[in-house]
Amino acid sequence: MASRTTDAAIDKTTAPALPEPQANANPEPYAKHFKGKQVSKFVDPCAEASKASMDCMNHHDYDRDKCLDYFQVYRDCKKAWMEQRKADRRAGKQVD
């Protein structure tokens, strides 16, 4: 079975360029995502970093070693998001 990135239908030369890993290091403001959120809907302020890491994997035929910077940026983004949420909860800030 051929990988998704080596199939004849996929042309890497026309694929969009990967963003720099650090371009997605900071999470989007989580309040923006949580306002008006439906109860069962998953929200991820680091979705761009997640997408960039998966795009990297697709681009490099799932060679994980070539995408380690993207994975680290995603982890750093999630950590910053969680720290901000904790700080806001301690400060009594409400997100409706």
UniProtKB/TrEMBL annotation:
<comment type="function">
    <text>Required for the assembly of cytochrome c oxidase.</text>
</comment>
<dbReference type="InterPro" id="IPR051040">
    <property type="entry name" value="COX23"/>
</dbReference>
<dbReference type="InterPro" id="IPR010625">
    <property type="entry name" value="CHCH"/>
</dbReference>
<feature type="region of interest" description="Disordered">
    <location>
        <begin position="1"/>
        <end position="29"/>
    </location>
</feature>
<dbReference type="Pfam" id="PF06747">
    <property type="entry name" value="CHCH"/>
</dbReference>
<dbReference type="InterPro" id="IPR009069">
    <property type="entry name" value="Cys_alpha_HP_mot_SF"/>
</dbReference>
<keyword id="KW-1015">Disulfide bond</keyword>
<dbReference type="GO" id="GO:0005758">
    <property type="term" value="C:mitochondrial intermembrane space"/>
</dbReference>
<feature type="domain" description="CHCH">
    <location>
        <begin position="46"/>
        <end position="79"/>
    </location>
</feature>
<comment type="similarity">
    <text>Belongs to the COX23 family.</text>
</comment>
<protein>
    <recommendedName>
        <fullName>Cytochrome c oxidase-assembly factor COX23, mitochondrial</fullName>
    </recommendedName>
</protein>
<dbReference type="GO" id="GO:0033108">
    <property type="term" value="P:mitochondrial respiratory chain complex assembly"/>
</dbReference>
<keyword id="KW-0496">Mitochondrion</keyword>
